[in-house]
């Protein structure tokens, strides 16, 4: 008797080639910690695939041609001679452009695999992260917006008309909101600490068609407050939107151990959110879910959280 498809794990060694200066929180060790945590017997059923390179045309679905050219041509050339600063927080090294293309390519490959029934859902442990990258601007450790590229790919290749991104990173995904804001067929919902970088994500920011749902949480917010925000604001709006595909911006920096924020979640909260998103996906879109790594800067908390998240995906 054939077994049901399991969870895909799509990444690439090139994502380790994105180097940042000593002391930068978005470092190679983050991805190593996640991958090591998933290299155990429990996670052997994962379907492990290497991410392809996204094309410029793929990136241009979500970004302006000017940004794509700036990152892949001008900034990449400068990075070949050492670190180049994109902004105060965001840097490129000689391996950054390849890493960014693999990161976006991983989400594209994951969407394709889910749509083809190759696996039920997928997790993309990738870097650089993406949710701060706006249509015209790279920022906040992010070069290209991986989930936004994946959402547009799902629309163009498969003709889907209602695609949702759920973001539980501790920082608001201003980039995804910017790209989705005026498009009624794209839904973005976020829980995040406020006030905190990047300063966006107020509850009044609703999108041109009410397609943006922000649930800002105060410093010190715990799992009870996090879950209540999902249950009262995000899940009802998501179910009303009735997505045909759901992507998750899986940032784990709302963990109580994370050094860059002041929320008080633990890995059980991320597992709960994942399970609930999968429950809605089963009702709305045949369980189609792709998750991509965003933040998380305490290595131990990041590893534990990623394991809990992937375990929930595998149990769907």
Protein described:
The protein contains nine helices and ten strands. α6 (174-180) links the parallel β6 (163-167) and β7. Helices cover 39% and strands 15% of the residues. With 316 residues, it is α/β, with parallel strands linked by helices. It has an eight-stranded parallel beta sheet with strand order 2-1-5-10-9-6-7-8, sandwiched between helices. The chain has a two-stranded antiparallel sheet with strand order 3-4. α4 (96-115) packs across α5 (146-158) and α7 runs parallel beside α8 (267-284). It has helices spanning 28-37, 56-59, 65-79, 96-115, 146-158, 174-180, 223-241, 267-284, 299-314, and strands spanning 7-11, 47-50, 84-85, 91-92, 121-124, 163-167, 186-193, 212-217, 245-250, 289-293. It is globular and about 50 Å long.
Helical stretch count?
Answer: 9
The overall pLDDT average reads 97
Topology order in helix (H) and strand (E) letters: EHEHHEEHEHEHEEHEHEH
CA-CA gap between termini: 19 Å
Q: Which shape, going by the Cα principal axes?
A: globular
Main beta-sheet strand count, sense and barrel state: 8 strands, parallel
Number of DSSP strands? 10
Sheet with most strands: strand arrangement: 2-1-5-10-9-6-7-8
């Amino acid at each position: 008797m054939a077994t049901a498809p399991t969870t895909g794990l799509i990444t690439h060694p090139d994502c380790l080639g994105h180097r940042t200066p000593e002391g930068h929180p978005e470092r190679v060790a983050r991805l190593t910690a996640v991958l090591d945590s998933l290299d155990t017997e429990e996670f052997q059923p994962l379907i492990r695939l290497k991410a392809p390179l996204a094309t410029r045309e793929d990136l241009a679905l979500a970004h302006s041609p000017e940004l794509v050219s700036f990152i892949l041509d001008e900034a990449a050339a400068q990075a070949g001679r050492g670190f180049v600063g994109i902004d105060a927080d965001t840097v490129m090294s000689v391996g950054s452009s390849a890493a960014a293309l693999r990161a976006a390519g991983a989400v594209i490959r994951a969407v394709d695999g889910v749509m083809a029934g190759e696996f039920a859902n997928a997790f993309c442990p990738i870097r650089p992260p993406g949710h701060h990258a706006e249509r015209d601007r790279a920022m906040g450790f992010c070069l290209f917006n991986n989930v936004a590229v994946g959402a547009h790919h799902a629309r163009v290749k498969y003709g889907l008309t209602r695609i949702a991104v759920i973001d539980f990173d501790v920082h608001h995904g201003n980039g995804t909101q910017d790209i989705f804001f005026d498009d009624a067929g794209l839904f973005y919902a976020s829980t995040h600490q406020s006030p905190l970088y990047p300063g966006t994500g107020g509850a009044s920011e609703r999108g041109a068609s009410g397609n943006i749902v922000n649930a800002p949480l105060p410093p010190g917010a715990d799992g009870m407050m996090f879950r209540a925000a999902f249950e009262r604001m995000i899940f009802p709006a998501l179910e009303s939107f009735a997505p045909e595909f759901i992507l998750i911006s899986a940032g784990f920096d709302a963990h109580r151990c994370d050094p860059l924020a002041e929320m008080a979640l633990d890995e059980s909260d991320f597992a709960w959110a994942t399970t609930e998103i999968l429950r809605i996906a089963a009702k709305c879109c045949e369980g189609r879910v792709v998750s991509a790594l965003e933040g998380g800067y305490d290595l131990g908390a990041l590893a534990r959280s990623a394991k809990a998240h992937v375990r929930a995906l595998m149990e769907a």
